[in-house]
Each structure stands twice: as C-alpha cells, then as structure tokens.
Amino acid sequence: MSDWIDIAALEDVPQRGARVVKTQLGCVAVFRTGTDQVYALDNACPHKKGPLAEGIVHGSSVTCPLHNWVISLETGMVQGNDEGQVATYPAQVVDGRILLDPAFLRARSAA
Amino acid sequence: MTQKLIIIGAGMATGRALEHLLEADPGAYDVTLFNAEPRGNYNRIMLSPVLAGDKSYDEIVIHDADWYEANGVTCRFGERIAKIDRDARTVTAENGDVLSYDKLLFGTGSNPFMIPLPGHDLKGVIAYRDLEDTETMMGMGPDSKVVVIGGGLLGLEAAAGMAARGADVTVVHIMGHLMERQLDEAAGYLLRKALTDKGITVRCQANSKEILGEDGHVKALLLDDGTELPCDLLVMAVGIRPNTALAAEAGIAVGRGIHVDDHMVTSDADILAVGECVEHDGALFGLVAPLYDQAKVVAKTLLGEQAAFAQKELSTKLKVTGCDLFSAGDFAEGEGREDIVFRDPGRGVYRRLVIEDNKVIGAVMYGDTADSNWFFGLIRDKTDIADMRDTLIFGPAYQGGTPLDPLAAVAALPRDAEICGCNGICKGTIEDAIAAGATDLGAVRAVTKASASCGTCTGLVEQVLAVSLGDDFVIPAAQGMCGCTDLSHEDVRRMIKLQGLKSMDAVWQECAWKTRDGCAVCRPALNFYLLADWPLDYTDDPQSRFINERKHANIQKDGTFSVVPRMWGGITTPDELRAIADAAEKYKVPTVKVTGGQRIDLLGVKSEDLPGIWSDLNNAGMVSGHAYSKGLRTVKTCVGTDHCRFGTQDSTGLGIKLEKTLWGSWTPHKLKLAVSGCPRNCAEATCKDIGVVCVDSGYQISIGGAAGMDVRETELLCQVPTEDEVIDVIKAVTQAYRENAKYLDRIYKWMGKVGMDWIKEQVVENLESRAALVARFDLSQTIYRKDPWAEHAAKKSERYQPLANLTLEAAE
Q1: B180 touches chain A (CB under 8 A)
Q2: How far is residue B801's CA from residue B606's CA, in Å, rounded to a whole number?
Q3: How many angstroms separate the CA atoms of B808 and B812, rounded?
Q4: Which of A98, B26, B488, B507 has its CA 20 to 30 A from that of B610?
Q5: Residues B566-590 as b or e (16 or more Cβ within 10 Å = b)
Q6: A-B contacts (CB, under 8 Å)
C-alpha cells in the first residue's frame, strides 16, 4: 500500500495517550497504548460526544473524560453495561512513523 | 581434484561449517583460514562466564592449534584480507601474498556499534565483543567504577560480570525497561529488581549526551538531564552491525548484511557467506542457533549437495547467575491476541503467554524457567492448546493444578516488615500473637495494638491472620480498589510503603494486578500514592492523570477548557485584571465568571489556545490557580485588620502566606482553605477543609468542613498564638492527610475513619511528629511547588496542538 498518509512520529503521541488529527469532518483521535499499538477512532464518545483523545488509556481501551464510558480501541465498541460504537480507522506504525489510510477520509466524506 | 577454499574469519559459524565439511569429505578442499583476531575459534557466547570468573579462556576454546594441524587447515591468524579480485578469483593478504581460490567463504561476523558520542574515542571506552575487551574488563580493580551503555542481553551480562568482580556498575538504558526486545515491562521490572539487588544501578530512559575525559582517559558519562556518572571504564553494548566492508568493496550485493540465498551463496556463485555478517530474507542473525543451521547448509552447498536454510522461531536466555529469564516468539499486543499471565511476586516468578487462535505464539518467563523448553515446543509446533488452556500457564507438570494464592504477597513479607505504622508493630509480632491464641482482628488489636490507631492496616492484619490460620480465618469481604485488584486502597498503600514500591510497574507486579496497566480508576490513585510517598524517587505520570490535571485546565462538556489564574488570598491588582481582560478578548473567551474561591474563571478556551493564554497570564505575573487539581485550590480571606473595624489579625496576609506555602501540593482530593479575621467568619472558614478563625489571643485552626454534596462544619483541631505556628500545623495536617487518606477522600471523610484524636496526636500534641510531617511536606514541595503553566507553555505546547491537520487534503 503506497498511499498510506504519514501523520507523525510514534514519539509524538505519548505512551498510554492520544492526540487528534483534524479532518474536514471533525477530529480523529490517534491512540498509542502502553505496548506501542496505534489505533485511530472518531474523537467523540457515543454518549455525549466526549473528546476520547483526552481520556485515560489503559490496556487497549480508553475511558472517556466526561462520564467514564470505556471504549475498546480495537473494535470501537463501548464496554460494560453501556451501549454504542465509535468508528475505527486503519492505522499502522512503520519504521517509527504513524500511518493512516486515506480511505478513512473518503469514508468520512461519504458519511 | 582438490579445490581451494579460503575462509575469511575464524568464528563460531565458519568453525562449525568447517567441522561439517571435514566430517563429510575431508579431502574435498584445501582450506586456508584467515582471522583478524590473533587466535582461532572460541566460544564467544561464554565470554560472560569468563568475565564473571566462572570459566577461563582455555575452557572456551573450540578449536586449538592441534585441531587445525590435524585437519590440515592452513591458519593465517592475525592477518586481514586487503583485497579480493573476483575476476581472477584471488585474494590479497595484508602482507601482499596473492592466493587463488575456487570457493571463498565470508565469515566476517559483526562489529559492535559505537555510538558516536563526543568522547567515544577516549581511552577506557570499549565495546564488549572479543577476548581483548573481556580482558580489559577483567583488568579493572574491584573498587573501580564502570558505566555500561545498553540494557540489552550483552550489556547486562557485561554489567553482571563486572559487578561480580566487585566493581561499582551503572547500566544506562535509553528505553523504558531492560531488554525491551525480548521482555515485556513486567519481566523487565523483575529483572531490574534482581540486578539492583546485586548492587547494580540501573537507569532507564536515560539519554547519553557526552563522554567526559581527563588526560585522554574516560572520566564520566554525561546524561542529557545533566547527571554525571563518574567511571574508570565505559562499556558500550548497544548492538552489533554486520561486518560487510570487505564484501561491499569486492562488489558483492550487500544490504544491512551480505545478501545470501537459501543455500548461503552470495550474488557471486563462487562466494558464500555464513554467520552474523549475512542478511537472509531481510533478517540478520545474532544468536547461535540459526548460525549453526547456516553452517550445516553452507557445508552441504560447498560439497555440491542440496540444502536450504530456513528461519525458525528463536528463544533467548540471559546468562546472569540468579536471573532466570527466557523469552521466545512474539509478545506484542494485538487484535485477536490474548494474554495468560501468572505472577507470584513472593517467589519472584512471572510468566506470560500470548495466545492467538488457540496457539501459543509468544512466551516470557522470569524467575522459574524450568518449563521453558515445553512452552518453546508449543510455540514451534503451533500446538492447539484449547483443551489445556485452563491450566496451561502452570506448565506440563501442573495440568489441573491449584489456582494462584492471592495472599502470596503478604505471605512473602519478612517477619520484621512493619505492618502497623502507627504503633510500630511488625509482622512477626502479629504472628506470635496469633500463635498465642489471638485468632481474630479484635484479639490481635487488643494484644498487639496493630490496626488499633488509624486503622489503614486492617486489611493487612486480616491477611496475616488468613496466612497464619489458613481456612480457620475468613477475611471479611473488603472492597477492592477496582477491577484490577482485590486489594483495597489501604492495602495497596501499605504495600507501597512497606515494600518500598516506587513505580507503577512495581505496584502492578508486587500486588499481582490482574490487568496489564491498570484502569482509569486505579491509575490516578496509584500515581497520587506514589508521588505522595516517594516525592524524590517517583516521576509523576501525566498519562495516569485525569485530563484536567494532565492539561492543567478544567474540561467542559463541549471539550473546551476553563482557565483560572491564581489570585493569592483573593487579592488582585488593576494590572492583573487588565491582563485577564486582554487575554479574554484575544482568545475570544465566551464566558468570564467570578468563582466562589475569590478569583476569575475564563470558560470556553480551546485546547490549542491554552499554552498561549497561559503565557500571556504568566507575563502579567500570574500562575496556575490549580482550579482543576486534587490539590490546594484557594485560600479564601476577608480583609482583616487592614480595613475591617472588627478584624483581630491580618487574615489577608496570613491567607496569602498559606497559599504561597501550600500551592502546587497534591492531596487525595481538593483542598480548600479560608482565613477569617474574626469570629463573624466572613470568609466562611468553618465549612472549608481547613479553616482558620482569628481571635484576639491567636488563631483557631479547625478541619473537616465541607459545603458540597455533604455540608459539614469543621471541628476544632487546636488554637495557636502565632502565624508561624498556624503555618506549621497546617503543613503537618496536610501532610498527614496525604500520607494516610484514601485517594478521593476529602479531609472530613478521612477524619471519620482515623478519628480526630489520632490527628491531634500526630500534629498537635506530639511535636516531634509535627516537625517530621512539616519536614516531609517541605521536601515534597521542593519538587512540586512550581507553575505548571509556565513549564507547559515553554516545553510542551506542541502536545496541545493537533497531531496533523488533514482538512486541506480532504478538500482536494
């Protein structure tokens, strides 16, 4: 795949943290776990649109900063008794660089 | 007819290839062996035992002079090859001799990578690669200081070897934990602990900046945080690079290593390569198992037989006495991958298996590696483990074994470990009391006084009872901290103090956390406990803090933030107000509100504007108001004797002094103070966490008020005659609160648990205890009394910006 977009260095996102990528249709949160896995999700909790990038990252989940909903970074599914799902997008790390699939932008435009 | 084979390099790979070749057909080749080192093939892997003094050089020689002679190998040791002429099929030795070959075998191995730090060419800076390096290290006296750069396999073996010889060794490692390529964080933590117990100092996340010298000899290593580590010898063990220079000069295809196909043939059909110098299918090789596989293949290829090299799963063991450690396969986290983790901190045992599609794909073991071969077999053979999954982690002998004992951590405490800090009661005393017939909590309390004061050790005392009495004692159900552990806040806190746990990893490991890295409930609590108990040793972890404390502003429902600058004691100036007004206009702040804590709140600021607005407020002399923190918020005051006709003392001045003393401190929950100048109490001091009411004869200090979900009046702690004493008592009570209270308990809740009498004893009656609390508070403030806004605006403003902006691409 040659058309992955190089976003930033892995180090630019703190371990167990996240930062946002701005797109025309809102922000995407790019997460980095304690084991350097990288995930990209819509930066909005299905509950009340809480900014997930500001949450606490633990294992491969994030806890929303507004009302503590827990969301799986792998599937976007809300964990526990709450219900909902956040859109996830392909992300990978190659040679220490975070790459996102531009298809996700197109998908967002179509949505 | 006999052909001519020239081998460049007498290492373990070419040595093994020679053995295969001579065994299969001793007459096939007339062999000439060049080696740059002035000796033949020895077991390089065993250099660590030689360094540690467990073996001598003679014991690790594989091929001695007699062997070479008996097998008719012409040895040219201590000689390099100057040139290769592939068209003429000749090599030129350093001394000018030209020798022709039919087949040429590269075994040039690898070179240690030397970080090009300033000073890397000083005397006393060495790699750890060959016998010369080992001898240099062995020549150091027992009192010497040694720094090893590199916390990988080789670096740690060098460090342990030197430490065994009595040297004072420090390992400097750039990554967050040791051997990060082979170990996960938890095993890295255990390894670090074992090395520390051997007297080795380990510094992770340490960046080397410069090697300092004196008279051409190394003197110290300078880290980029300014730390200087004095040393007489500096060993760089940061990795190896295939030695490809000669091959590249000869025009053979070279990438990171010398390219070879499955038959170990290079881009030239008459030239082969084997060992650490090769690159096969994108991979390099540093461990001996694949090198020996290659040696077998290269021997067959030389004899015209069919053979192909295939890469296999690899495993690693560390050769340091007392550190049993094993890793194999892939243990990164990933979708569809699951972990089975076994921890027995008491015995120092850790095992982790990574499972994918019902197969073990990775294993990390520490402490007890007896079953490592069995697990390695499961990985290599891709065995389906679905049926034995329940008991898999216990190894082959324990199929159907018993579950892990949750009391192991307490059972492992030594008899002299202090369980009850208030009364100085150790585990042994409690055990003796139990043996003498005290078989429940009440009886233990009555006999020993353990857990009879503040009560935070109750959980631990109950666990000692359970460990001692077994099934005869049932622990009352206690509330676990969160889903990650069954231990209560109090238990965890006691373990942090008792066991000297100074990192999040240490807590997770020693307290047998059920999750890899905690959750949003326990991480902020642990972060607080660690920084409160070990202010000098523990580094605050922003990623374990709630967003407000991570970004030093309060998140609002729309994801914007509010900004509250500090107004000491509620006093401000026209200049400050002007700066606030300017900032509000410049950053288009939608709402400006006066708070209940006598200051001004700017609501609706965007994350990316935070560093800018802070910087503007800093320039006007204002600092963070910590309106977002579990820490000191405000000290509310009335105008006191400055203006008020009823004022008895300078309440405003005292409030400012208190705020300047306490600001920046972290506490279990928010901490609000007030100082009223007379009993009319205009500053509402009697519903604050700590309140001071001035009277003619001095100052009444009361604590435990609240005016939130619960409304409570404070209770009198004491009355003191001077301002200085007010400040000391308040520092002491704040310190006692943060050393003992459960995270997210306000003072009144903590007071309800430990009782006012206990607090009075600690901070009012016992002056020695008060002084010690004040000293610990002051020490902590040397680290934390600083303005986070200034720091973030100057050094971390990047983190407040989007990682990338793709709005333009999307539009195209």
Answers
A1: no
A2: 10
A3: 7
A4: A98
A5: bbbbbbbeeebeebbeebbeebebe
A6: 107
| Predicted pLDDT of residue A107 | 61
**3-state DSSP assignment of residue B570:** helix
Determine the residue among B484, B799, B803, B808 to mutate to test chain A binding: the one whose Cβ has the most chain A Cβ atoms within 10 Å.
B803
Confirm if B438 and B446 have CB atoms less than 8 A apart: yes
Q: Which chain A residue's Cα is nearest to B183?
A: A35
Query: Which of A56, A72, A73, A105 best tests the B interface by mutation, with the highest count of B CBs <10 A?
Result: A56
> Is B557 touching A (CB cutoff 8 A)?
yes
Phi, psi of B524, deg, nearest 5: -60, -35
B540 Cβ under 8 Å from any chain A Cβ: no
Residues across chain B = 812
- Verify whether the Cβ–Cβ distance B802 to A34 is below 8 Å: no
Q: Please name the residue that has the structure tokens 């996700």.
A: A104
Q: What is the largest CA-CA distance in chain A?
A: 41
Residues of chain B falling short of pLDDT 70: 1, 313, 316-322, 332-333, 345, 370, 397-409, 453-456, 475-478, 808-812
Helix (H) or strand (E) segment spanning residue B524: helix B522-533
Residues 6+ apart with CB under 8 A from B58: none
The two three-digit tokens of residue B710, written as one number: 């619960």
**Pairwise CB contact (< 8 Å): A59 & B523:** no
Sign of CA dihedral B41, B45, B46, B47: positive
Asked if B166 and B82 touch (Cβ cutoff 8 Å), the reply is no
- For residues B264 and B255, what is the distance between their CA atoms, to the nearest angstrom? 15
Concatenating the DSSP letter of every residue in B270-303 gives TEEE-STTEEBTTB---SHHHHHHHHHHHHHHHT
B39: its two tokens: 């000796």
| Chain B CA closest to residue A22 | B805
Q: Give the Cα-Cα-Cα angle B40, B44, B46 (nearest 5 degrees).
A: 125
DSSP state of B94: T
Lookup: tokens for B278: 């090769």
Q: Which residue of B has its CA nearest to A32?
A: B543
Amino acid of residue B429: T
What is the DSSP secondary-structure string of B754-795? H-HHHHHIIIII-HHHHHHHHHHHHHHHHHH-S-HHHHHHHH
* B279-306 per-position pLDDT tens digit: 999 888 877 778 888 999 999 999 999 9
- Please tell me the distance in Å from B619's CA to the nearest CA on chain A: 28
Interface membership of B335 toward A (CB under 8 Å): yes
For residue B334, list chain A residues with Cβ-Cβ distance below 8 A.
Answer: 37
Mark yes or no for CB contact A56/B802 under 8 Å.
Answer: no
| Residue B97, both tokens | 């001799």
Q: Do B387 and B493 meet the contact criterion of CB atoms below 8 Å apart?
A: no
The reply to whether residue B335 touches residue A74, judged by beta carbons under 8 angstroms, is: yes
Q: What is each CA distance from B635 to B630, B632, B683, B689, B777, in whole angstroms?
A: 15, 8, 9, 10, 18
Residues B760 and B374: their CA atoms lie apart, in Å, by 60
Overall pTM surpassing 0.80 (yes/no)? no
Q: How high is the mean pLDDT in each 10-residue block of chain A (111 residues)?
A: 82 94 88 93 93 95 92 92 88 92 64 45
DSSP B627: T
Name the pairing type of β-strands B698-703 and B715-720: antiparallel
> Cα B122 to chain center, whole Å?
31
